[in-house]
Each structure stands twice: as C-alpha cells, then as structure tokens.
Design a protein that fits this description.
The structure holds 2 protein chains of 2 kinds. Chain A is of the alpha/beta class. In chain A, 36% of the residues lie in helices and 22% in strands. In chain A, the strands form 2 sheets. In chain A, strands 5-6-7-3-8-9 form a 6-stranded mixed β-sheet, sandwiched between helices. In chain A, β1 and β2 form a beta hairpin. Chain B is mainly alpha-helical. In chain B, α4 runs antiparallel to α9 and α9 packs antiparallel against α11. Classes of the chains: A alpha/beta, B mainly alpha. Chains A and B meet through α2, α4 and α5 of A and α1, α8, α9 and α11 of B.
Chain lengths: 259, 294
C-alpha cells in the first residue's frame, strides 16, 4: 500500500476515504479531479458511485486500488487488504488460457500447484465457466470474458471489490445475468463493493447506497440508501423510482455545466 | 446489505449456459490439415513454375550467350552434381555456422540493449535514436572499417553481422515494451505483479509478438550482412557459400554461380518460413490472427 494509507477509523469500515483530493498536472494547467471526497464503505456493503463524465470516478477507484497516489487526504482499507479491481474491459491476458488467467494471482501469492488447481476449478464453477477453462479469452463472448475477469479478481481472496463500469460494454440481457451473478457472489462472500457506473438503473438494481459525484471537480453531492429487498429486478417499479430520483439530481448537476 | 433470500440462481444457471452456447456458436470452423496444406502450397508451386518458365524463355530468346546465362535445366544438373560433392556441404556448413554464431550473439546484444533502453529514460534519450540510425546504415558500408580493424578475417564478418542485426532486435524489444497495453499493466499490478514479476507475467509475454518481429528482421539483416561479408572477405581458408559465388564468377562458371545462388535463396526462404510459423503461432494464441489470412 502507499504511504498515505492508514488503517480505517473504525473496525466497522471496509474502505475509508477522508478528504481525498487528486490534482493532475501543475501550475495554471493543473486539473482538480477530486475535491475532498470522504466516504466510508461498511463491510459487506454495496456502494455505487454515479456521475456524469469527468467526475473522477475512475480516478477514485485507481486511488483506492493503490495504483495512484492521492494529492491529499487519506485512504484506508480494513486489514490493509489489497482490493480487487475490475475494468470495463476484461483486461485478460490473451496469451493465457482461461484457467491460467485465473491462476495468475494465486501464483503470485505463491500457492502450491495442487491448491492452485483446486481453487481455479472452484472459482470457474462460481462464475459458471467450469467447462471453458482450456479456452483462450478470444474464443469467449464479452460477458464470459468479464466473468473470467471476475473469477480472476476473486482469486485475490480480497474482501474489497472495486468495479469500474464492468458491465458497460455488454448487451442488456448479458448485463442482467451478470447483475444476478454479482449479487449472488457478493452476498455469498460478504464482499464490500465500490461500483462505478453512469447507468443509474444499474446502480439502483445493485446498490445498498448510491453516491452521486459532481463533475470537474468530483465532489460528493448526494447520497441515498436503497432499501429495496433483494433479489431485485432491474425493471421493477421500485428500482425505476429510485433511478428516476437519482437521474433528476444528475440532470441538475449536468445542467449546471451548460450555463 | 447481503440478504439470504437470493433465489435467482436456478433460473440463471440454465439461462447462462444457454446464452454462452449461443454466443460462442459458430466461432470454430474445422478445415482438414491436407486441404489447408494444399491451399498454402499450390500458389507457391505455380509461382515457381512461372519463374522457371520465364527464365527458360529468356534463355531461348538468345539475349545472352548460354555461358553467361545457362537455362534452368543446366543449372539444375549442376546443383545435383554439387549436392554429391563435399564442396557445397562444407560451404553450407561454414556459412551456417557463421550465421548461427553471429545471430545468437546479435540476439543477446539486442535483447539486453533493448531492455536497457526500454527501462531507462536516460538511456533512451542518449542512444534510442542512435539505434534507429544504426539500422539505416547499409551493412556493406561497415566493411572497409571492419577490415581495417580486424583484417580479412572471420572477425570482420562477425563484427558487421552483429552491427546489422542487433539494432533491429533491440528496436523490436523497445517497441514491444512500449506498446504493452496500459490496461494490462494496471490489471497485472492489481493482481499483485510488481517489479520483476510484472516483467515475467505481463510485459514479456505482451511484448512477445513485437520481439519476434524484431528477431525476424534481425535475421534478415544478419543474413544479408553475412553474404556481403563472405563476398568481400574472401581468401580465408574456408570456402563459404559467399566465397563460392566469388570463385565461380572469377572462373566464369555460370551454372555453379547460379546453383550457389539457389542454395542461398532456399536457405533464406526456409529460415523465413520458420520465423513466419512462429509469428503465426503467437498470433493465433493471442487471438489476433485474421481469419481470412489462415
């Protein structure tokens, strides 16, 4: 972890951000991407970050993942865990089979071969791809690749999952199925998820809490709990109602930039 | 918060495998090995036949006397005779040994140099463009200097071969490392690959196609430099292929000259085909092989 990382303030927090600021560049051309973002994710909580373009959603995830350092503020992860990160692209290694892709984080953690094989099989069953272990990524569909990426991230055995518009490039039906899958895996493994999306319906379908970020600079401007019982359906009226409410706020925010 | 009442799995299981089956259906098409081989071979055979025919027509036309330009039949017979004597094989062995030693050394130098330049910003600023400049220098232009430094020896040839091949190989490594998709680097780092492990698990395999392209180009340069060297640096004891070209010209033995040229051409084609096969195998694994090009 980076030197700016400190343990979270309380034991009941999986991810703690306080006053996180990120500036790109220097001098007059500097861009303030994130401005004092404070946010706690409870263990087992599913938080969706919603915002229009340029709200620094991806920047925020990179900071939490430790791939970049904040310009100010603090980021803490419970137990100093290394959070798993998923992108809009599956980012699989094209030169490896599906199995070998999932095996990479296990190898890097130095697990013995027999245990690795067992874990890979279990993870592929989890994402319903047990029969596809010997395939290469290019032989699979987009949704299947994204499930391989999910299995590979789960192989990190991390309690915190960061997801950067992971289903943004998929068709609606595949996305529906992956919502179900993610919800099941999240609940089985009691993961804490920080999920970035610009799709408000998706946020209402998945989240325990939706957080709205403003654009340029990114600030938290609105936050709402979603207490619709699970399992949810993306086309249910309750989900639609929450989505409408968040969309209204988002429109106001986007409109502010047009003036 | 997590609820324990998720009952959607039974529905999804069938749905997921159904969708998977639909989406990857028709992606694999099997063509028999024989058909593929024939499809790849017959255009080459046809081209060869056309070239031989054109050659024969030029000979028939009487453009040049037959002692300067013999026909394919005469040259073919000479080639068959050569194949029975030790001279051709000894020349071939000498040339191939030089090629192998020079190339292996070039690969070592090129890989190390490329990796060093790709890693270090200072080195890149200092010698990055010099490597490209070296590549543009025709290898034959190095020979006068090489002969001054090493006299008419095998060392002079070796010197030029390495100078010709190493920059291409280094450039392959540099561009391979430069063009590793940043997304894969981020994914690799997130999965726990830092430092050397990032090279082992992400950068080296991702750069492999470009490195192989560099190796292939490096071979082409080293082969050309070697031939130029063997033509110029004659007079050392062994009769390499290049030396045989020189001798046959001096003796005005056109069939010998042409048959030696054919041996050189075939050698080049064989090695090129080996590189081509490696390149294709990699691209197939990576999933970037154009289906029409198969």
């Amino acid at each position: 972890m980076t030197s700016t990382t400190t343990p979270p303030r309380s034991a009941t927090t999986a991810v703690a951000l306080s006053g996180v600021t990120k500036v790109y560049g220097r001098g007059p051309s500097a861009v303030l991407a994130l401005d004092g973002v404070s946010l706690d994710v409870a263990p087992g909580e599913f938080v969706c970050l919603v915002g229009a373009s340029g709200c620094g959603k991806s920047t925020l995830l990179n900071l939490v993942a430790g791939l970049d350092r904040p310009s100010g503020g603090q980021i803490g992860i419970a137990g100093d865990a290394n959070p798993g990160l998923m992108f809009q692209e599956p980012a699989l290694f094209p030169w490896l089979t599906v199995e070998a892709n999932v095996e990479v984080p296990l190898k890097l953690r130095g697990l013995p071969r027999a245990e690795r094989r067992e874990r890979v099989a279990e993870l592929l069953r989890t994402v319903h791809l047990a029969e596809f272990g010997r395939k290469r990524p290019h032989e699979l569909s987009g949704g299947m690749r994204q499930r391989v990426a999910l299995a590979r991230t789960l192989a990190l055995d991390t309690p915190v999952l960061l997801m950067d518009e992971p289903f943004g490039a998929l068709d609606a039906m595949t996305r529906d199925i992956l919502h179900d899958e993610l919800e099941r895996i999240w609940s089985e493994r009691r993961l804490s998820v920080l999920f970035v999306t610009h799709n408000v319906r998706e946020a209402a379908r998945l989240a325990d809490r939706i957080i709205l970020l403003s654009s340029r600079p990114g600030r938290i401007i609105y936050s709402t709990e979603v207490d619709i019982p699970r399992p949810r359906r993306i086309d249910s009226p309750e989900v639609a109602a929450i989505a409408a409410e968040v969309t209204e706020r988002l429109r106001t925010e986007v409109g502010r930039h047009g003036q | 918060m997590a609820s324990d009442t998720l009952t959607s799995t039974a529905r999804s299981d069938a749905e997921i495998s159904g969708l998977d089956a639909l989406e990857i259906a028709g992606r694999e098409k099997e063509v028999s090995r024989g058909t593929r081989l024939w499809a790849a071979t017959w255009p080459k055979l046809a081209a060869l036949a056309i070239v031989l025919l054109a050659w024969q027509v030029v000979v028939w036309s009487g453009w040049k006397p037959p002692y300067s330009l013999p026909g394919p039949l005469v040259v073919g017979r000479e080639l068959a005779t050569q194949a029975q004597g030790p001279q051709l094989w000894e020349g071939l062995a000498t040339t191939l040994r030089r090629a192998a030693v020079g190339y292996v050394f070039s690969v070592a130098v090129g890989l190390l140099l490329g990796l060093a330049v790709a890693r270090s910003r200072v080195l890149r600023a200092a010698i990055g463009s010099m490597i490209t400049a070296l590549q543009t220098m025709p290898s034959i232009a190095w020979f006068p200097l090489a002969i001054l430094l090493f006299e008419l020896s095998e060392k002079a040839i070796f010197f030029v071969v390495v100078l010709g091949a190493a920059p291409s190989i280094a450039n392959g490594v540099i561009s391979g490392v430069d063009y590793v998709p940043p997304l894969l680097l981020r994914a690799g780092r997130n999965l726990g690959a830092r430092g050397l492990n990032l090279y082992r698990y992400v950068i080296a395999p991702a750069a492999l196609p470009a490195i192989v392209a560099g190796l292939k180009q490096g071979w082409a340069f080293s082969w050309r430099s070697l031939m130029a060297g063997e033509l110029i640096v004659v007079g050392i004891s062994q009769t390499s292929l290049g030396a045989q070209l020189t001798y046959s010209r001096e003796l005005s033995d056109a069939p010998w000259l042409l048959s030696t040229m054919i041996v050189i051409l075939v050698l080049g084609l064989v090695v090129d085909a080996a590189f081509g096969a490696a390149d294709k195998a990699i691209r197939r694994r990576w999933g970037v092989l154009d289906q029409a090009g198969q």
